[in-house]
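Before going further, learn to read the protein records used in this course. A complete example follows; check for yourself that the lines match position by position.
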Amino acid sequence: MTEEQLDRVITAGKDRASIDAYIYTIVEANTKTAEELYMRKKNDIFLTEKLDAIFRERNSAALIAEGEAKGEAKGKAEAGREIILESLREKFGKVPKNIERVVNQMNDPIALKSLAVRTGSCRTLAEFEAEL
């Protein structure tokens, strides 16, 4: 279905509540076209509200799962940074600000885990810094 055809179907159903299921089905079958139409018709309040509702319903579970995954990764990264810095403090005392800054900018949980393991084998802060 083209954007123009989809626009006509949605606009024709503007004043009829019973057509919502029909519009929903058409939008689901023509998602890419509906998204393109939505982006072009941002100022058409009816169209925007109708498509907003459809997209929100369709994507809510995926968005929730994505948010949870991001939160989990952020938590792992935060824990990894803290483990590294605590290990360094325990082993060497004070940690230089430049090393702290680099560690605190790291967000990849896998890289942080690998670096945490290497903190145990480094004999000096200079050796650890070279690992960064």
Observations:
- Helices lie at 3-12, 20-29, 31-40, 45-92, 97-105, 109-121, 125-131.
- Residues 71-131 form one domain.
